[in-house]
Amino acid sequence: MGRPAFPHIPWHGPDSGACSPRVLGINPWITDFAAFNVWSRPAGLLACLDMLRRSGATVALLDCLDPTWETRPDLGLKWPAPGKYGTGHYPKEEIEPPAPLAFMDRRYSRYGLPREQVKEALAALDPIPDAVLVTTIMTYWYPGALDVLDICAELWPDVPRFLGGTYATLCGEHAARHADAHLQQGPLEAPANWAAFWQLIDFDAPQPPANAGLSLALDLYADPVYSLVLGSRGCPFSCEYCASHALYPRFDQGTPNAVMETIQSEYERGVRDFAFYDDALLVNPDRWLWPVLDALPETCPGIRLHTPNAMHVRHLTPEVCTRLKAAGLVTVRLGLETTDFDHRHDVKLTRDQWEAGARNLLDAGFDLDDVGVYILFGLPGQDLSNVEQAVRHVRSYGFRPHLAHYTPIPGSPMFETACQASPYPLADEPLCQNNSIWPCVPGGFNWDEAKRWKLLLQGIGE
């Protein structure tokens, strides 16, 4: 299935009628100083559209971060060619930074589909929706969500609009003041949210379908070059810098049959690159992960698996590493945080566990280029010399260090500490939660320091 011609947005599901609402989901643009596509998909929105369709609704998707239509250079729709394993750049348009970020000496851009084409495509949507769901992936990307909500309000003033995702859930007071929409805070399948949604669009609420929240409407993407795997939602751990529990309080795991059906369906459409979106991929692997990985080499030969969300190193036993390698894992990301093992903010990891996990990966046959290690940078009160030590430590193993720039997230245990350490109004203005400004680093973002860290990551000048 190729991409449709501009400006077509297709509906999927039963024929619309009195008992079948039409629900349009929109993943808005990124507005930021930098953005790169690392197998990005709006998993929460796709879960919502899936459960609504399986409850009788007709659904459509407009993802402003996907090359939705066939390439039309004359319309400004040319999308950069995909890079390694389907990752790559977004098209972008430089825009004025919002007032709270005007102090930054960096270019600010809107990333994704051109705004006027999005507006034209929405205006051409026929029939019009009975409800619009807009998601937000990062709190500080809310300008794109507010913009697309305004477009929908202009086109269809009487159609209920819903704003969900990270910004709506974690910055509810700010969103209530600025968004012309009903706030969808937390999972749609939660009983109160489910009942309220159907009531607001004036339809009787059916029972939520089985596997709600874990089944995704991935088929709404035409001609995808990558896809995602979601075997669980939530996280059993409570890292101080993370708001996973505020976003999804439980830790739910799916079934191997459901996960395999999703992978096989996407594989049959030509997809070969799959990214795991699980926050705790290696927890209780017998539940779904091992049956799936054991089946993949025969059922989906040539598949390539990626773990952009860091795996927990302490779970990387020789058996785990061998099974991951045999199943087709090619992109390994690990969460080290720091080599100050006595003062950690995440799941407890000892030096012995780190060294054993690293050794087990190499013994299983992973190349050094396959393995990237996230090191937290910019925590409130952090001694950055410890970050330098961690970078050199990772490089001594031959792995590639990556700075995971700290984002102050409302709802995380560390957020109050971040508010006290930062000169910016983190609690009042989500734009100031942007990790690009180094919100908790004394002095904030600095080009000279950014260059120094880049060279250090590359091992230049040591």
Automatic annotation (TrEMBL):
<dbReference type="GO" id="GO:0005829">
    <property type="term" value="C:cytosol"/>
</dbReference>
<dbReference type="GO" id="GO:0051536">
    <property type="term" value="F:iron-sulfur cluster binding"/>
</dbReference>
<keyword id="KW-0411">Iron-sulfur</keyword>
<protein>
    <submittedName>
        <fullName>Radical SAM family protein</fullName>
    </submittedName>
</protein>
<dbReference type="GO" id="GO:0003824">
    <property type="term" value="F:catalytic activity"/>
</dbReference>
<keyword id="KW-0408">Iron</keyword>
<dbReference type="InterPro" id="IPR007197">
    <property type="entry name" value="rSAM"/>
</dbReference>
<dbReference type="InterPro" id="IPR058240">
    <property type="entry name" value="rSAM_sf"/>
</dbReference>
<dbReference type="Pfam" id="PF04055">
    <property type="entry name" value="Radical_SAM"/>
</dbReference>
<dbReference type="InterPro" id="IPR013785">
    <property type="entry name" value="Aldolase_TIM"/>
</dbReference>
<dbReference type="InterPro" id="IPR051198">
    <property type="entry name" value="BchE-like"/>
</dbReference>
<keyword id="KW-0949">S-adenosyl-L-methionine</keyword>
<dbReference type="InterPro" id="IPR006638">
    <property type="entry name" value="Elp3/MiaA/NifB-like_rSAM"/>
</dbReference>
<dbReference type="GO" id="GO:0046872">
    <property type="term" value="F:metal ion binding"/>
</dbReference>
<keyword id="KW-0479">Metal-binding</keyword>
<feature type="domain" description="Radical SAM core">
    <location>
        <begin position="221"/>
        <end position="449"/>
    </location>
</feature>
